[in-house]
Request: fold
Amino acid sequence: MDEERNLVERGGGYVVLLIVTAVLFFGWRTGLVGGLGETEGQTAVSSTSSLATDSLAANAADQQPTFDFATGDLPVISDNSLDPNPNPHTFQGERPSHAFQMYVVKRGDTPNGIAERFGIKTETLLGGNPHLSQEASLLQTDMELVILPIDGVLHDVQPGDTLEGIAEEYDVAVEDIIAYADNHLEFPYRLYPETQIMVPGAVREVFVWTPPDLASVGGTSREGSGIKPLIVGTGTFQYPVGGRNFSQFYWYGHPAIDIALGEGSSVVAADTGTVTYAGWNVYGYGNLVVVNHGNGFETFYGHLSAISVTPGQIVYKGNVIGLSGNTGNSSGPHIHFEIRVNGVQDNPCWYLGCG
Ligand SMILES: [Zn+2]
Reply:
């Protein structure tokens, strides 16, 4: 009996199993049971999307560089995209760095002597020392001079300066300025205010003060377009002082002669003429007398301690016009004496003989 029941139970089990199998099979065919079908569909989709991904990756590979090097070799790319204040002036050039010798002027020094000692042109003393070209008396004892290493001008860079402008100002080639190594000029040749640029071969222009003409002095009359002086000189000149102790001769930066002598010594007119200036001069001459000789010549007498003539006054050759002194830019009592021909400073020694 046990065996029969077992058979029946076993047979019922088969039937149940058969029914379940049949239902599953039917359901699969009609889609009522979606489990298997969905799973298979997903597999298919996922397979397709995998292909699509591969295809995109292939396209991307065409457009972007492939990085197949070791991580340690990765290039460092600075990214300042988050910088709140990006600086458009990314060029940071080197600033000029010049090395100079300094020289302290001693008693008895002459510009020519100093220049010769350092192997530069006398004009180059002006190139390194701009204040000198604005003074009527050049060298003062204990004054510190910048000695440039080569002939040229040391230019103080001003805001707005350009290389082209500087080259034009000194009449030199832009390339010569760039080529000077210590200027540290690299493309795009940025200039920095408050630095100095060496301008090789340049000569600094000398400031020339011009006295008023005879018309503004008074007591003069006009004839045609010209101005008639009150008197015409002899055309020859005598020394304005008794001494011959020259402290500075004529050169580009000092178009005059300096004669050292005790303060209060008499200074006389070198030739007959009309006084056109008698007073203080702010350009370094101190107390100054200018005489116009009516023949194209003018004479200048600087650094006086006293003046004894007035503008418009006639003076004759040898008349006292004042006393020697140490006024203005002066390194000691001396007379600064200029002879100008039609406004151009000439070497007084050519007229006086300084030997
Ligand atoms: Zn002088």
Summary: Residues 136-137, 248, 254, 256, 258, 336 surround zinc ion (CB under 6 Å). Residues 262 and 291 are 23 Å apart (CA to CA). The first helix runs from residue 2 to 30.
